Amino acid sequence: MRLRIEAEKQLGNFHFNINADITDNRIGIFGESGSGKSTLVHMLSGHMHPDRGEIFLDSDCLFSSSRNLNLRPRHRRVGLVFQQAALFPHLSVSRNLFYGYRRCNKEHRKVTPDELIAVLKLDGLLERGVRNLSGGEKQRVALARAVLASPRMLLMDEPLSALDDGLRFQIIPYLKSVTEQFGIPCIFISHSVVEMQLMSNRILTLQSGRLNEETTPDQLARKTMARSQRGYVNLLELDGATSEGGLFAYRWGEGRLLISDGNSRSSALFELSSRDIILFQKHPEAISARNLLECRVKETFSADNRVGIVLTSGNRQLVAEIVRKAADEMQITAGSTVFAAIKASSFRRLI
Amino acid sequence: MQLTPEDITAIRLSLQIALTATLLSAPLGFAVAWLLSFKTFRGKILLEVFINLPLTLPPVVIGYFLLLMLGRNGWPGSLLNDAGIQLIFTWKAAVIASATVGFPLLVRSIRLGMDSINRQLIQAAESLGSSWFDTLITVILPLSLKGILAGSSLMFARSLGEFGATIIVAGNIPGLTQTIPLAIYDYASSPSSTAMALSLCLVSVAISVVVLFVHEYLAGTVEKRGER
């Protein structure tokens, strides 16, 4: 999917002016509140039009002030998933799901309802009303409703912000599987770097109504490392755990990881803060941390007064974070070898 | 409790007038409430003032304006007269009087209901391929039902009690335009008819209680949607 947008709008004291040309099937829009994310969402969905400019999705023009063209929301085929699900409260789950499907031209239909309902595990909910659904169920229904209308693009406006951490990471696999399985490109809007890492390949970052930069999830996580509460969040997808002394052992790179909160049944996703990794120049004699990994330093990068160390082992990599003085004292450079100590309890299982 | 045949006619007429006024006003009230709640246009404040004016005017003043307009010298009245339609001093004039006085109550209740509709539901419907009319019928209307019910009940009750405007445009003709309040007014002016007046008062209370019960029941049914 190629998105070209050149739009300007004055909203009271807020001036929105963005110019971007980005191609990817998983685009992220990142920014703090007040950065213009919602304005951009409304412009893409057709619920707000720029004062001046043009919006193109692939070769189709959605808006052009010079051509006096503004495609109505219902003709844009842009699926919306909101923060608060926005399900029709007077309709059952089933009628919510089929609201868009029934209004979609037969030649545009590319999603089979039964298949989608199975993927999103909605079978048991179909005849229920929407008011008594849990937050996660509501969001799955909202996602299915948008996908069943066979949109050419899904616009997800902070769909996970209203959910607690447990639910948030349960929904992400659904979001990913639906967009991958049914081949629907998506634009994912969020102010969470971890969500950006999980849901996007290319990211537009907004600041004060302007495009700050086009970047990748990894670059964004590096840039925000110093000011983020959890530093650089390493996401590790691991499977095939074995039990070892009350811990879960996973193969990782050329070594293995011992994790307290593992899952022996299926694959699991863990997060590990860059601040929970302690580096040693030489192999320590005795250490209480259950993981001591011999890693090669691939590269280093600076973020304010911090230094990020990209560690590799086999084909896997981790980012550790130390203060600049420690990096100078340890003389860490690309190509050197270090030992990384990580407590088994530092890994937080997300899924 | 004793009721004369004229009293029975007054009760029937009251119900007929209130029901007709409510049913005729509901679609227009819904449209006006939709305009005020969802649309931005020049002159919106003027429209709001005009709609709400009957709330602040004495009903007799409204009755007098209606009399001027619907009489032979008013342009709507003369047009209707040319078409062979005579409204003044008929039950239809009472319907117009009730509809005019109760209309702001109806619009305000429906609008309150519409204002509470999450705008993202409208955006969701549109992005799912729904036209504005489709959205109006499948999303806005069902979600405004509680407001429509509340407004209709209020308007029905207000119409049952309408006196000032009705007596001016429809008169107080027993069997033709005399409603419950007008009949009570007649009985009240004669000291020997206290029992008759009280009987009609009791009927009036009973009708109001039934209206409130029906409203509560329907509102409860609407509220329970989506909770299975």
Automatic annotation (TrEMBL), chain A:
Domain spans labelled ABC transporter: 1-233
Entry EC number(s): 3.6.3.29
Keyword Membrane annotated: yes
Cell membrane found in the keyword field: yes
InterPro entries named in the record: AAA+_ATPase, ABC_transporter-like_ATP-bd, ABC_transporter-like_CS, Mo/tungstate-bd_C_term_dom, ModC_ABC_ATP-bd, Molybdenum_import_ModC, Mop_domain, P-loop_NTPase
Ranges for domain Mop: 286-351
Keyword annotations of the record: ATP-binding, Cell inner membrane, Cell membrane, Hydrolase, Membrane, Molybdenum, Nucleotide-binding, Translocase, Transport
PROSITE patterns the record matches: ABC_TRANSPORTER_1, ABC_TRANSPORTER_2, MOP
Protein origin, superkingdom: Bacteria
GO CC annotations, alphabetized: membrane
Top-level EC class: hydrolase
GO molecular function, a single term: ABC-type transporter activity
Stated name of the protein: Molybdenum ABC transporter ATP-binding protein
Gene assigned in the entry: modC
From TrEMBL, chain B:
Domain (ABC transmembrane type-1) ranges: 11-213
Its membrane topology: Multi-pass membrane protein
GO cellular component, as recorded: plasma membrane
Annotated InterPro entries: MetI-like, MetI-like_sf, ModB_ABC
Protein name: Molybdenum transport system permease
Keywords: Cell membrane, Membrane, Molybdenum, Transmembrane, Transmembrane helix, Transport
Subcellular location: Cell membrane
Entry-linked Gene3D superfamilies: MetI-like (1.10.3720.10)
Originating organism: Chlorobium phaeovibrioides
GO MF annotations, alphabetized: molybdate ion transmembrane transporter activity
Family per similarity comment: Belongs to the binding-protein-dependent transport system permease family. CysTW subfamily.
Coiled-coil region: none
Gene: modB
Function: Part of the binding-protein-dependent transport system for molybdenum; probably responsible for the translocation of the substrate across the membrane.
Residue spans crossing the bilayer: 15-37, 49-71, 83-107, 128-149, 195-218
